[in-house]
Specification:
The chain has 476 residues and is an alpha/beta fold. 26% of the residues lie in helices and 23% in strands. It starts with a helix and ends in a 5-residue tail after the last helix.
Length: 476
């Protein structure tokens, strides 16, 4: 399209043509034709000779956190020589407000490349598509303007920010350095072997001869390794568990067109998982994240680097957990229900410590066979995962408004772990009194919270409940 200057030349050309017709002047005729054709030729040239540019985009830091600014660096470089100017606009999701605009070439261009920088802040976690760049190119005379899209897009991951939690609620499996010694009788190695005195019945192949010579008595190998304690987090992702009246459309700004849904309650649950997971990782735990059906908790997240991974440990674990939680949304009921169990499938396995009464309102043991829970939320699959000796650690379940049936299926899981805690987030915490009573009678530390309540406050309530039980000589 023509600019104001271009339309001015066209208008001047038309006037010249009229003057040539009235006055009969050939020179005015030639001038009018020139004035009209020049801007049209400029517009045609911009259309046929489309400028080509390369765009490179970088984020500092590479992943953002909610409420914390992230710096975006943009480098624009012409692929072919370009002598004109351009006004460029970085296309952003509406959540970030007005898109930044800049002129090419930049005032301080580095050779052919022009570099720009701007900042973004998001109050919501998510996976956001940044770009492409929309550019309006002017010809050298400023007569015509052509708009083109240059470069591609880059995904910006905005992670939930963990909040600082008060004193730990979960007991057991924590040493002063956050580790626990686990004796493993296996193949001897130079790294993990210790020795002790020979006892009657010890096989001679385990005799440690150098230690025997040093101590003057028969010593045998005793393999002892220091293993990282593991905690299990279960995040209920079923849409039916959370308050449906508070669904938020913020996922429409994410990179996927078929973006998952969320709600204020689910946002609270994700923030709780992030905060509790970061706290456990800081205390030396390896964290295993599952959903209500014992599947990897991030397998549906488009922002997860490895959707099949369920265990997080090491220095970068908190960042990996946050990246996976960034674009995790609610799961529809049809997808969460899973396939129907086949006839004759194994029924639910239960645990009950001696002397512990069955939870009030729970179904009798023989009726457990009527609830084949292999594919049900909080069913057999979760219990089997908790019974895995490699993951025998504390359990934290974050869920919405549990039904009584869900609570009954979840209750026996407390017997499979040293300590168990469940946080229910719902707009009506008082309505969950029956489910809380059932879980507490089964040995759970159970609390209900509203989405408006801070995660740290709900964690403090759980800590007070656990302390009260400890004073009574009961296990939380």
């Amino acid at each position: 399209m023509l600019t104001g200057r271009g339309w001015g030349l066209v208008a001047a050309g038309v006037v010249s043509l009229l003057g040539a017709q009235v006055l009969g002047r050939r020179d005015l005729l030639l001038l009018g034709v020139f004035l009209i054709l020049t801007p049209l030729a400029s517009a045609l040239a911009l259309r046929l000779l489309k400028p080509q540019f390369s765009v490179q985009r970088s984020f500092r830091p590479s992943t953002a956190e909610t409420g914390i600014p992230v710096s975006v660096g943009l480098t624009v470089r012409p692929v072919k020589p370009f002598g004109g100017t351009a006004r460029m606009t970085e296309e952003l999701p509406a959540r970030f407000g007005t898109s930044p605009e800049f002129l090419f070439p930049a005032a301080r261009a580095d050779g052919l490349a022009s570099r720009y920088e701007y900042r973004l802040v998001s109050s919501r976690r998510g996976l956001y598509r940044i770009g492409p760049v929309s550019a309006g190119f002017l010809d050298p005379f400023g007569l015509a303007l052509a708009r083109h899209t240059i470069g591609g897009t880059d995904d910006l991951i905005v992670k939930p920010v963990p909040v600082e939690l008060p004193a730990a609620v979960l007991d057991g499996l924590r040493g002063s350095d956050g580790s626990v010694a686990t004796r493993v009788q296996g193949v001897p190695s130079q790294d993990d072997v210790t020795t002790r005195e020979y006892r009657h019945g010890d096989p001679m192949r385990r005799v440690h001869w150098s230690a025997t010579a040093r101590h003057g008595e028969l010593m045998v190998r005793q393999e002892e390794t220091v293993a990282t304690p593991r905690a299990t987090l279960v995040l209920d992702q079923r849409e039916s568990s959370y308050d449906q009246g508070f669904l938020s459309p913020f996922w429409a700004e994410t990179a996927d067109d078929a973006a998952p849904a969320s709600s204020e309650s689910f946002e609270w649950a994700v923030a709780a998982v992030m905060s509790i997971g970061a706290d456990l990782l800081e205390r030396g735990f390896a964290v295993r994240l599952l959903d209500a059906q014992a599947r990897p908790g991030l397998q549906r997240s488009p922002s997860s680097a490895d959707p099949r991974a369920a265990v997080f440990s090491g220095a970068a674990a908190a960042g990996e957990l946050g990246e996976g939680l960034a674009a995790l949304g609610l799961e529809e009921a049809a997808a969460a229900s899973g396939p129907r169990p086949r006839h004759g499938s194994r029924t639910r396995r239960t645990l009950r410590r001696p002397g512990r009464p069955a939870p009030s309102g729970a179904s009798p043991r023989p009726d457990r066979s009527t609830h084949p829970g292999q594919h049900q939320p909080f069913g057999d699959a979760l219990l089997e995962a908790l019974l895995d000796a490699r993951h025998r650690g504390p359990l934290v379940v974050i869920t919405g408004a549990l039904s009584e049936e869900d609570a009954r299926r979840l209750a026996p899981a407390a017997d499979a772990v040293p300590s168990a805690l469940v946080l229910l987030v719902t707009e009506r915490p008082a309505a969950a009194a029956a489910q809380l009573a059932l879980l507490r009678s089964a040995g759970w530390t159970a609390e209900a919270a509203a989405p408006s309540q801070p995660v740290a406050a709900a964690w403090s309530g759980a800590a007070e409940h656990a302390a009260a039980l400890a004073q009574q000589g009961l296990r939380p």
